[in-house]
Amino acid sequence: MAGYILRRFGAAVLVLFAISVLVFLIFFATPGVDPAARIAGKNADPATLAQVRASFGFDKPLPVQYALMMKHLFISHDLTSFVNRGTLVIPQIVEAVPVTLSLVVGAAVIWMVLGVGMGTLAGAMRGTLVDPLVMLLGVFGVSLPVYWLGEVVNLVTQKELHDSVFSWVPPLGYAPLSEGVGQWALHLLFPWLTLALLYAGIYARLLRGELINALNEDYVRTARAKGLSERRILVKHALRCSLIPIVSLFGLDFGALVGGAALLTEVVFGLPGVGKLTYQALQNLDLPVIMGTVLYAAFFVVLANAVVDVLYARLDPRVRRA
Amino acid sequence: MPEPLLEVSDLRIRFGGFTAVDGLSFSVRPGEVLGVVGESGSGKSVSMLGVLGLIRTPGAEISGKVVFRGRDLLALKNAEMRAVRGREIAMIFQDPMTALTPVYTIGWQIAEQIRAHEKISKRAARDRAVALLGEVGIPSPEQRVDSYPHEFSGGMRQRAVIAMALSCNPALLIADEPTTALDVTTQAQILDLMRRLRADHGSAVVMITHDMGVVSEIADEVLVMYGGRAVERGSRRQVFHTPRHPYTWGLLDSVPRVRGARARRLPTIPGTPGAAGRGCPFADRCAHSFAACAEVPPLTGESGHLDACWLPEEKRTR
Hints:
- The complex is a heterodimer.
- Chain A is an all-alpha fold.
- Chain A has two domains: 2-89, no CATH class; 97-316, MetI-like fold (Orthogonal Bundle).
- Chain A has helices at residues 2-28, 35-40, 46-56, 62-75, 89-124, 130-143, 146-160, 181-215, 218-225, 230-261, 263-268, 274-284, 287-315, and strands spanning 80-81, 87-88.
- A two-stranded antiparallel sheet of chain A has the order 1-2.
- In chain A, α6 (130-143) crosses α8 (181-215), α7 packs antiparallel against α8 (181-215) and α9 (218-225) packs antiparallel against α10.
- Chain B has one domain (6-88, 168-257, 265-315): P-loop containing nucleotide triphosphate hydrolases (Rossmann fold, 3-Layer(aba) Sandwich).
- Chain B is 31% helix and 22% strand.
- Chain B is globular and about 65 Å long.
- Chain B is built from ten helices and twelve strands.
- Chain B is α/β, with parallel strands linked by helices.
- The two termini of chain B are 32 Å apart.
- In chain B, the strands form two sheets. Chain B has an eight-stranded mixed β-sheet, sandwiched between helices.
- Chain A binds chain B through residues 127, 217-219, 221-230, 232, 236-237, 240-241, 244, 315-318, and chain B through 52, 54, 58, 78, 82-87, 90-91, 93, 95, 98-103, 112-113, 116-117, 148, 150, 161, 164.
């Protein structure tokens, strides 16, 4: 097991290196594009252009350029946004990460509890009215787009009913944990629920299908023949095996969301997270920031993948040898 | 004659409009091996699942009486039935590759069954699992107890499944084609093992199979099923030496012979299995059918050798 973990994380480091090279090549070696002009932004003056050229080593060969870029990113942390008049990129990302992590971790807890609960209920109660009702609820969650649902939630909690039922809802934005757990959670409550609803629906449907398959497996019949209780059969045998694909999907979704896929939720609820940072950078074509966030996103997706594979091996003994 | 351990009378199992088991009656005495033979679809597996209350299909109707040690199993509550399953009656299924939960070790799964029925520490349950694995012929059981099912071969897995079934010393072991999914040499080993275990544990065995060879090796009594009904019942000697039902003749004829003249083609029973709508279920495939076969023949006979056929005595030669 320890060897497996080591190998898996070794592979993750290699993948990260490959991604960084690829990202670098896309931004700096696309034929027919002058990267200096892109980085300096529209209508940059010649002095800025010259400064960019010198700082990124555009007169030197590509490997040196790559090394310089990585130095700016990881060693001196002084990658500068020229569009935004000299703002440093790395501190922006570092500031945005806790916001995104808070949003995604909270939402993930909610959607896993809801999704596993609903999926198990529907799968175990198949053939009764509970199953279609729960699944209808799931479809409802899946079919509400975050940007629309978020706006509706804001309309109701911030405007229409803010003077009566929802007077306890704080204004949009983020309150760091240093202001107290209560304020932090209160600010994030509706973003959490909004983001979790979609995933809870997807996970509930997926788990229900897996569970129904598992309950038809021979090993469940064996478990019944052993004289185990239905609850034990459901939890220890059927659910345990059904959770394996759920865990792998969870890792991918979680990685992608932390990497910036929670963008819509962050924008709608005014949370200054990585997604919102990327969104602004894309609007201004702020190349250094885009590069920084892309690499950051890649890091989380690859890390989440590695963690999932290790968890997977923990859950399913059949893959440990692979 | 000792009191029967299991007495099934007039068991009927229906799924919607389809009758899978139609008035089946048989009994098993303590320590006896009953071989239940028949083609696929003859109702042999489903009747045993019915006995154990393992039919979960919505809309299945089960009626009749299944008396085990003086209690009617069909009338028991779920919790009472759970106490019988696995402890007093254990079941082994056909495919050992899928019968074990893939994510737990063999030892864990055996200990789980022991601990479901007995108040015993984890440690003691594990020790018993090791002893059981050793008993069914798994080499170095102290190590293999922590193996996962996928690390075992098919024959080893079936041994583990048998060890699990025997873990609470059941009075009755129902084995549903336990050797069908295994290769021939492994089959012989598993049959040997079952014979030896029966001698050691004294469990009665119901062996479901479509393989006449397996029955001739292990059974004391034989029950031949067709279309959800018993068509012939008797001791192994009676059924193999003086078979009375045309279906049994067909089954015995379709076993290749090692000695004597070799048939040019192995005889088969024409047609496909499936109960005829009325009358004798075998009538539309039977070479001897005549007018009387429009009525269902009763299971009758002398000195424990029963058959359900209208054919007069002088024509009972194949």
